[in-house]
Amino acid sequence: xxxxxxxxxxxxxxxxxxxxxxxxxxxxxxxxxxxxxxxxxxxxxxxxxxxxxxxxxxxxxxxxxxxxxxxxxxxxxxxxxxxxxxxxxxxxxxxxxxxxxxxxxxxxxxxxxxxxxxxxxxxxxxxxxxxxxxxxxxxxxxxxxxxxxxxxxxxxxxxxxxxxxxxxxxxxxxxxxxxxxxxxxxxxxxxxxxxxxxxxxxxxxxxxxxxxxxxxxxxxxxxxxxxxxxxxxxxxxxxxxxxxxxxxxxxxxxxxxxxxxxxxxxxxxxxxxxxxxxxxxxxxxxxxxxxxxxxxxxxxxxxxxxxxxxxxxxxxxxxxxxxxxxxxxx
Length: 330
Prior knowledge:
This protein is an alpha+beta fold and 330 residues long. Helix content is 15%, strand content 30%. Helix 3 (158-168) runs antiparallel to helix 4. The protein starts with a helix and ends with a strand.
């Protein structure tokens, strides 16, 4: 099947599925199980007609305006069993790691990558193969190469997810694996201290609809990708004076920004510890509305860092690692 025909089928399928999902979404008590915060969403009304919006991989910068919206955020703690990568698009588990500081690149790529592959197979039935293609370490410090991103988004579009499979596996194997179920799952973990500062929020997929998602070009600093196709270990802090310029960058991927909706239900794992992981699904070929889709299966998980007004003064800055995995099933 060609990419154009796949996209055409996807567009038709999405057009037929504009009604809200009828699956039950867990309801929290109104006690201390939530906070209220400001979330930043793409302002679709401000995108000039005929232009293509973009974001940068190395900076919290974009070509479009962001609109701020106040939302309630429910605490997942104590309710983790109600959420899964299938029903909501995310899941939280206690999975301590042998790695603690994540400052040794070689140790991350060897020992920690193995831990991630093992925990995915342990927690999600039916996985036959995991291919880890990238990771990002974020630290909220002035000299960090990557910092938390305050914009509601999804890391890959369906087309970008397919392109990742073809990029990271041999051609024959990739085409065979694309015939079955495949996913991109980020395994997200705090580093050294709880993620109380700038925690990560997710939106339950069941509260979204297809036209909430806006495709956006992902810009990378220019380099010779023909001879250097591995993005890992090349993070450098972007020049802040040039954050909002595309000069020196090129399109190397496609993400999704998320338009605001009163229907969205936000969640977070309050004071998430380094012994916990959040599985964050970026794409599922079996997701509802996809060409191979199954009803009720989450396609993706919108997510963002946010400022929790309940964060105590003097709380250590957030540090986290996200490991991006291609996941294939029997």
